[in-house]
Amino acid sequence: MRKGSRKIATLGVGQYFGELSLMDQKPHAADVVTTSPTTLGVLSSWEFAGFAKSNPEVHEAMLKEEARRLRDTDDTLPP
């Protein structure tokens, strides 16, 4: 993932991106560039909302991953 010309994350098999825009319906905060052939699944915000309500354990896992990513980002900031 990159923001402008700065690399902000490297994702691997089974990882996801774009979830913030699904949750708050705001424009994406970063771009994703693949380095190999990639297959993606795409959900609209209304599909995601229904999925999250029907699968609270998955939604909770996504929130925990968001917290981990935020902490990782925070750790890279200067004191």
Compute the number of structural domains. Answer: 1
Mean pLDDT: 89
Structural class: mainly alpha
Strand content: 5-15%
Which residues sit in consecutive blocks of at least 5 with pLDDT less than 50? none
Calculate Rg over CA atoms.
Answer: 14 Å
Largest sheet: 2 strands, antiparallel
For the largest sheet, list the strands in their spatial order: 1-2
> What is the oligomer described by this structure?
single chain
Instruction: Report the end-to-end length measured between terminal Cα atoms.
Output: 24 Å
Helical content stands at 40-55%
The number of strands is: 2
Q: Give the number of helices.
A: 3
Shape assignment: globular
The helix-strand sequence is: EEHHH
Structure characterization notes:
- This protein is mainly alpha-helical and 79 residues long.
- The protein has one domain.
- The chain is 47% helix and 5% strand.
- It is built from 3 helices and 2 strands; from the N terminus they run ββααα.
- A two-stranded antiparallel sheet has the order 1-2.
- A hairpin with a 2-residue loop joins strand 1 and strand 2.
- Helix 2 crosses helix 3.
- The longest helix has 21 residues.
- The chain is globular.
Summarize the entry for a quick read:
The chain has 79 residues and is mainly α. The chain has helices spanning 19-24, 45-54, 56-76; strands at 2-3, 6-7.
Provide keyphrases for this structure.
79 residues, mainly alpha, 3 helices, globular
Topology:
Layout: E1 2-3, E2 6-7, H1 19-24, H2 45-54, H3 56-76
Antiparallel strand pairs: 1-2
Helix pairs in contact: 2-3
